[in-house]
Amino acid sequence: xxxxxxxxxxxxRSVRNIKQPSEKQRILAKKSVRDHFAIIAVAxxxxxxxxxYRTYFAIQDIPLVREAFEVRNLLxxxxxxxxxxxxxxxxxxLKEKPLFVVPSAISHTSPGALILSSLARLTHxxxxxxxxxxxxxxxxxxxxxxxxxxDELALAIFQTNAVSAGSDGVGIFPRMARLNHGCSKAFxxxxxxxxxxRAIVVHALKDIKQGQELLTTYTDTKRPRSERRQxxxxxxxxxxxxxxxxxxxxxxxxxxxxxSKMATLYSQFKSWAEGAITGREAIDIxxxxxxxxxxxxxxSERGQLAADAVYIAASHSDGDAVRAWAQxxxxxxxxxxxxxxxxxxxxxxxxxxxxxxxxxxAHRPELVGGPILVQ
Length: 375
Ligand SMILES: [Zn+2]
Fold this sequence. Notes:
The chain has helices at residues 3-19, 23-56, 58-65, 111-120, 124-131, 147-161, 225-236, 249-270, 279-296, 302-315, 319-336, 342-352; strands at 69-74, 78-83, 92-96, 100-102, 163-164, 170-172, 180-181, 189-194, 199-204, 213-216. The protein is of the alpha+beta class. The longest helix is centred in the N-terminal third of the chain and has 34 residues, at 23-56.
């Protein structure tokens, strides 16, 4: 059989089939038309259902999908973040991956150049979100658009906005960076780095009303107003006007006394590690810090404070005290860092098994006592 013959035969069969479709092909053709209509019908029903859903149910979705906050221009403060609805204490408000991270200790001869090289790897809009951030301490008398200016500008923005990204170094988080600062009881959100997710999370530390500004804290504010203002001025270039810094003189003095007392108590507490005080005395100090914090309205760091008390109680093999402090620490870590945070989970475990603490029995046995003022 030659090749030509084969082609001809195929061709013949093809012509014959077109003119005279087989019974099987006729059935298949009908089935194809039916399938086609079935597909159209399904598509129409899906469109109708989508319309009904959008019309009747979408409105009910709004509270669930509505953003909790937005960035706004605030009088005399530049940009800031404002609550778009009432926010509950403990709510997760933001989870953000860093735009880029650089090592904590920059040994690079030109840190600005290192930041510029990180920026070069980003998309245009990502770079834009970096350059939209505020900055302080840009040297004066630099010619714009020169390599030196670009270096210094990148460095100034980085130094003003970068926060710890755990073992990765320090990073830029453009959304979180819009949070302004408040001292003592004025701040209402806290941010923390999640090592396992390589992201920063922001939780509401207090209930926040719609229209209220979301404030975090840039530094340890357990110090008098004059010191706080000096420090914030030097590092961030602004004079703090938060509600605590704006207190009238007499009230401000009382607040300063409470904050200074908390700082003093914290340093006394640390002396337990050197054997200067007993476990019982250390726990008494924790209770005092808690009480003064309550009077001041300073609620931050409570998860850590109660976890420190767990450490003391476990070291002295006081199981009941470990359980009680772990319960309190779990409660506050859940608010500050999230119920699913490593810290909250660890405390949940210790509530059940105090002896599993890594420091269990490291010091002589002692009944150190549990929390007195539980909030
Ligand atoms: Zn302030």
